[in-house]
Model the fold of this input.
Amino acid sequence: MHIIQGFTGQVDMWLARSSLEPTMVERVDAMFAARACPDAILVFVDAWTSRGGSQFINSASTGRYLDYLCDEVVAFVDERYPTLASRDHRGLAGKSSGGYGAMVVSMLRPDVFGALASHAGDALFECCYEPTFREVARTLRDHFDGSFEVFFDRLAASDHFDYGRFGGPFEMYGYACAYSPDLSKPGAALLPFDVSTGRLNEDVWALWLEHDPVRMAHRHADALRSLRRIYLDAGKSDEYFLDLGAQAFAAALGKIGVAHTLELFEGKHGGITYRYPGAIRELVTALAA
Done:
């Protein structure tokens, strides 16, 4: 089982502890110790970049992270550990951008992964991303002279990363690097909206929509039908409305006859690490059969 993280996630964060909560590693260790799940090797993958993440896809701006995950990380693990080196015994799970990666990578590389679990994965882009364009445009106008260049200069000069100040524009540019890289400027991105007005740039937005799991599903129907388990969940109060994204992806799966499970629970986008072991158990059980 390969486990991937959300945007800005780095691999050592799996050991982070919240007050009165076990860490992710402690949670899964307890599950295996209790014999509540078949034995499995869990691989915690780091795909962080200076833009905050990679969305686990190939990009001319951030790098070929789809290939890295599927061709380098998987091979590294299979060469060094006693794995069952087959897609039918290999799953991919993640939350938020990691959940996005689980959905998309499994569609693009069904030769590598045979099951997926997505916790509040980015999906239904007009619902989770488009409403934030106006917020970022306003933030740039009010605090960074309406310019991403000014934004990055001030971010570089800051002595700490103040998420309330920098988070929105930083994430937006990172997503753009993944979905709409500027092929004429290595490391740069084309934005899906006019930063001075927030008005949608239809041509660039179309590039983003090509990467939306909801819209990808019908193009990869055979790959999805081949998976041994698809598990989806999200909190019903998710701040990015990724519960609606999960529902939309589940509906797309239903239209093409793909078996899946969708669970909506009382919760928001954060604080849902307790959900991960159950999803891992679902995948490992299916992959061990």
